[in-house]
Structure formats: C-alpha cells, structure tokens
Design goal:
This protein has 251 residues and is of the alpha/beta class. Helices cover 44% and strands 14% of the residues. It has one domain: Rossmann fold, CATH 3.40.50.720. It has 8 helices and 7 strands.
C-alpha cells in the first residue's frame, strides 16, 4: 500500500468541497496534512477536526506560498483549489481572467515547482491535480476556465516526462458536475445565491459528491507503487460531455 510510503501531504482549496474532503481522507490515512486556504475560521475548524496543519494564505501570493511551504518535505501534493466565473470570453472582465489564471494555473505551476525537486531527491512522490472535464471537452461558457484546465491537463502529462526514471506518480482527476460551493460563489455567495445554485444545478440531478471524487483519488494513491493512474474522468451517469450543435443562419 503506497500510503505507507508517504508521510506528508499538502492540499490546496482546503476550506470547502473536494479540498476539505481530501484533507480529512488523507489524515485518516495517517498522513500529516498541510492545508492551504484563505478562510482562517474554516481552516481552524478543519484543523481541530482532522489534525491538519493550517496555512491561511492566498495562492496568488507566490512569496507567501514559498515562505510557508518551501522547506516542507511533501510526499503527496493535491492541487484542489480552483475558481470559476460566469460567462465566456466576450463577457469576461480583466479581473475574471486574472483570477482564473492565477489560481487555476499559475498557483499549480508554482506549487509543483516548489515541491517537485524534493520528491525527485527522495525518489518518491504523488501529485494529484483536480482538473475538470472542461479541460478535455469544449462546451458553452466559462472560456477562460476551460483554457486553464486544459493547461493543467498538459502540465500533468509533462510532469511525468520531467521526472522520468524517478518514482513520481501524477494523477489528473477530471470530474463532471460535483456538489460543491462553486456555483453559489459564481452567483455571489449569499444565502439566496446558495439556494438558487442548488435549485438550478443540483436539485433533481444525480450529481457527483465530494466523496465520489475523494474515493477515486484514494484508489489512485493506494494503487501499487509501480502503477500510475494518469488520467481519470469521473462523470455522473446521467451527464455526458458530447453533443453536436450547429447554428443555422438565414441571412
């Protein structure tokens, strides 16, 4: 069981959704878990419940990130943090695009840059990038989000090339719709937004849960050390990524 090979983990986006569930699972597995998030209160609650070591910081602040985790011997890195915005490139603002690039891509690159050399030196490590089916398929809206997740898809492949010959495993998880707070945050995060998001995106749908994603991650990490599960697409049974749209013009 490779979990017994590992001692420490680092999880981003730890204050909610997949990130919080991942912290809990890795702590249950006996790892010392460093949890990164921006909400100090939620981090404190998570730490008291799981024993995780909290790091309250903004992933877009690379200096703070390096200061907090630069010297840590991380065996398992889980890049779970992510942001999204409504609309496509025609309706996106400069701040919308900056936020998605900073968190969804730049922070992932910087964390890998900081953590990976230690893994190579120890000849041991596992990087899990929580991406999205938006990185594999094109569908309407969320253009910059698609672009950042597609970049994470390519990065996940490239890390394997960069570490060839070392016992470094890289898993990219590409979930479909998961019951998290992301849609409510897109709608403003108010109680009314939470209700609207639930009624619009989850009520009546058999969406994935955070447990579904974390169970899949657990399976990938627990696989024999000579096995690398590189790309795992996780979809609700009633959700499909395909479909052909053809817009007809009459003039």
């Amino acid at each position: 069981m490779p979990f017994s090979d590992y001692q420490t983990a680092l999880v981003t986006g730890a204050t909610s959704g997949i990130g919080a569930a991942t912290v809990a699972r890795l702590a249950e597995r006996g790892l010392t878990v460093h949890a990164i998030g921006r909400n100090k209160e939620r981090l404190a609650d998570l730490a008291s419940q799981t024993g995780a070591i909290p790091h309250a910081l903004d992933l877009a602040d690379t200096d703070s990130l390096e200061a907090a985790i630069g010297g840590l011997p991380i065996d398992v890195l889980v890049n779970s943090a992510g942001v999204s915005r409504m609309g496509n490139i025609l309706s996106s603002s400069r701040s919308d695009i900056d936020a998605m690039v900073d968190i969804n891509l730049t922070a992932v690159l910087q964390l890998v840059r900081v953590v990976l050399p230690g893994m190579v030196e120890r000849d041991l490590g596992h990087i899990v990038n929580v991406s999205s089916i938006a990185g594999l398929y094109n569908f309407f809206g969320h253009t910059a989000y698609h672009a950042t997740k597609a970049a994470v898809h390519q990065l996940s492949r490239q890390i394997r090339n960069d570490t060839l010959g070392h016992r470094i495993r890289v898993t990219e998880l590409c979930p479909g719709r998961v019951e998290t707070e992301i849609f409510a945050r897109n709608l403003g995060g108010s109680p009314a937004a939470i209700e609207e998001a639930w009624n619009t995106y989850y009520e009546g749908f058999e969406s994935l849960t955070t447990d579904d994603v974390v169970n899949t991650m657990d399976f990938a990490i627990a696989s024999p050390r000579h096995v690398n599960l590189g790309l795992i697409e996780i979809m609700p049974t009633f959700q499909v990524p395909g479909g052909l749209t053809f817009d007809r013009r009459t003039n």
